[in-house]
Design goal:
663 residues, alpha+beta, eight-stranded mixed sheet, globular
């Protein structure tokens, strides 16, 4: 905004006319006008901003330490309703105290929370409270002044941060964006215009995450969000009934990648979802949502991600074989039936990367699996799956992944150079490891051959290019670059890299199972920092560039306190990791919903002699209920002196890792 425009805006805000510009008197100093305008806006809204303090509750949510200082809220009714950010209450405090600008203090009741827009409604026993004036949403424009306020320690004056409205309908249509500084101090406070009229309520939000703490990492970054007051006022009557509101889920995924994709065909329609119950099918192409044409993934998100559970949505789709568009109506739900892929029960043959052959060869058939019951055998080749040609293992896995346990598929296979048809009734993925899983012997290369081709093998010490961060690796001396290998990413526990132990104990397993080890080292050996996840990812990517790595057999392994960081990595980079194996540890927080595109298998080793570990077993069952394939290996006092695992347990993890490419 140039000098003249800012002067015009401020003068209009203060006087409501052009008299000052037309007057012959000297023009007041611009800084004085700005300061006066900001103070007047703050004074106008000030009586409606309250201070909120919480007592008790959790001191940590995930990795975030919950704040103990005061936060902010805004009065929204004369009889004591107050709106604030849901972030202020994620620790589930035992009591909430609200202090009004005049110094009166009240206990507050948590009425309900809006988990879509991250708002919480409070109630205090007070009357005749000042309710702020809201600006009509149609008057909010990009580029206009925006003032973020909060009330913390000083009751007389609110905290003030000034910026402009930098965007509208952000976070899929939910929020106003401002560059005023936003932080936990003013979460729940008001965003106002230059006249002190209420634009919205300040909340942390993220475009790609929906957890309780999503968006907090952006505070004071120049990007802040506020829920428009028009939307807040619409939702208050629903919250005032005492029922929490949740984001609505329809149960569809689209083909194509990225929000700008124009491929509107449905890749999946989740079993038991509102979309399936309404009659929508995989393969349909969406053309309209709620009467509006949609031609891009972002347009679909703009509609669906602004709805609550219980809201309805209308869909118009085109379907192959149907001459006319089809219309459906679905009621969105809070939770979907957990995704569960069908399981056939085979390991695909691992051929040379240059070998081209029709279909997918079977290397191993799991005992008591659907494949075993259908009579499939090692060395059979699967040519077609439900009349669709199978070119490689990833294609076959994707086709199986689209079916549920209990559904039947027809296979065209080749056995002894003769084709035949076989029907397979898919099962659930087992929570066990095959006790007898033969290794697949790969043609070996000598160290001299690899050295000639400048391929490093053996126990290596490396430094990430362009960085001072280090890692170690073990590449089997018989490594053959014509075949793909699994990759174990070792996340060491705090204070001990365990490098010599892991190298010694895993060396023979790696040689037998075709596994490479890489062990990133934390910058501070006594702990892993969350910002080191990118470093670990870069280490994995560097190994992928140097060696032939099977993307379906990249897994994380850790011991005791290193396991928490391993799970952070697994859930942050779902597209990269296919398994997590941890010992003497389990998940501290509920995992995210299973992802059909990026299946993740888990392996837990717990000492049955430790009474604390016995308390962890129910958590394993909850994880299994979420349809994560989860192996639990109970050991009996194998490592009383804090040593690592015995050979039998390590071999079980090796067999599990060797079967991560199962179909």
């Amino acid at each position: 905004m140039n000098h003249i425009f800012r002067l015009l805006t401020l003068t209009l805000a203060l006087s409501g006319s052009l008299d000052l510009l037309q007057a012959q008197a000297p023009v007041p100093n611009l800084e004085i006008l700005e300061e006066r305008a900001f103070k007047q806006a703050a004074a106008f809204i000030n009586p409606s901003i309250v201070r909120i303090e919480t007592v008790g509750g959790q001191d940590r949510v995930g990795k975030l330490i919950t704040g103990t200082g005061p936060t902010s809220g805004v009065i929204v009714s004369r009889d004591g309703l107050i709106i604030s950010s849901a972030f202020n209450f994620i620790g589930k405090p035992s009591s909430i105290l609200v202090t009004l600008p005049d110094g009166r203090r009240f206990p507050a009741q948590n009425v309900a929370t809006d988990h879509l827009k991250m708002l919480t409604l409070l109630k205090i026993d007070a009357q005749n409270l000042p309710v702020p004036l809201a600006i009509p949403e149609s008057e909010i424009q990009v580029g206009m002044w925006s003032i973020a306020l909060g009330r913390t320690f000083d009751l007389d004056q609110p905290s003030i941060s000034v910026g402009i409205v930098s965007a509208l309908e952000r976070i899929w249509g939910k929020a106003i964006q401002t560059d005023a500084k936003i932080s936990p101090v003013n979460y729940g406070g008001p965003l106002v215009d230059i006249n002190g009229r209420l634009m919205g309520i300040l909340v942390p939000l993220s475009p790609g995450a929906s957890a309780e703490t999503a968006g907090v990492e952006w505070y004071d970054s120049g990007i802040g969000f506020a829920i428009p007051m028009s939307d807040v006022l619409k939702v208050i009557p629903r919250l005032n009934t005492g029922k929490d509101l949740y984001p609505g889920l329809l149960g569809i995924t689209l083909t194509g990648n990225g929000d700008l994709s124009t491929d509107m065909q449905l890749d999946r329609v989740r079993y038991g979802s509102p979309a399936q119950e309404a009659g929508v099918k995989a393969g349909d192409t969406i053309t309209h949502l709620d009467g509006n044409a949609v031609a891009m993934h972002s347009q679909v998100k703009q509609v669906l991600m602004n709805k609550y559970a219980g809201d309805s949505v209308s869909l118009v789709v085109t379907r192959e074989g149907s001459p006319d568009p089809l219309s459906f109506k679905a009621t969105m739900v809070e939770k979907l039936v957990p995704f569960e892929s069908g399981f056939m029960g085979i390991l695909p043959q691992r051929a040379s990367i240059d070998q081209v052959e029709a279909g997918v060869g079977i290397r191993f058939v799991f005992s008591k699996s659907a494949a075993a019951e259908a009579g499939l055998k090692p060395r059979d080749r699967i040519l077609e799956f439900n009349q669709q040609k199978v070119s490689d293992a990833s294609t076959l896995a994707l086709l199986v992944n689209h079916l549920r346990p209990g559904e039947t598929a027809e296979l065209l296979i080749s056995r002894d150079q003769k084709e035949q048809t076989v029907k397979v009734k898919l099962q659930s993925t087992p929570h066990t490891v095959e006790s007898e899983l033969p290794t697949q012997a790969l043609p070996s290369r000598t160290a001299a051959e690899n050295q000639k081709d400048k391929i490093k093998t053996g126990h290596l010490k490396e430094e990430l290019p362009g960085s001072e961060s280090t890692f170690w690796a073990y590449v089997p001396e018989n490594y053959n670059p014509d075949y793909e290998y699994g990759l174990m990413v070792w996340i060491h526990p705090p204070g001990n890299t365990m490098e010599s132990t892991i190298f010694k104990e895993w060396k023979s397993i790696c040689e037998q199972r075709g596994i490479i080890i890489v062990g990133p080292a934390a910058q501070d050996i006594i702990r892993w920092n969350r910002d080191e996840t990118e470093f670990v990812k870069e280490v994995v990517e560097s190994m992928q560039k140097r060696y032939q790595i099977d993307n379906t057999r990249i897994f994380l392994a850790s011991h005791r306190d290193g396991s928490e960081f391993a799970f952070d990595l697994a859930f942050k980079y779902r597209e990269l990791f296919r398994g997590v194996a941890v010992s003497e540890a389990t998940l501290k927080n509920k995992p995210p919903e299973t992802d059909p595109d990026y299946p993740l298998s888990l392996f837990f080793v717990l000492n049955a002699a430790n009474p604390l570990n016995q308390l962890l077993q129910p958590q394993i069952e909850l994880i299994r209920e979420m349809n994560y394939p989860t192996v639990l290996e109970l050991i009996k006092n194998e490592n009383p002196a804090g040593e690592y695992l015995e050979k039998s347990t390590l071999e079980a993890i090796g067999r599990w890792a060797d079967s991560l490419d199962r179909i």
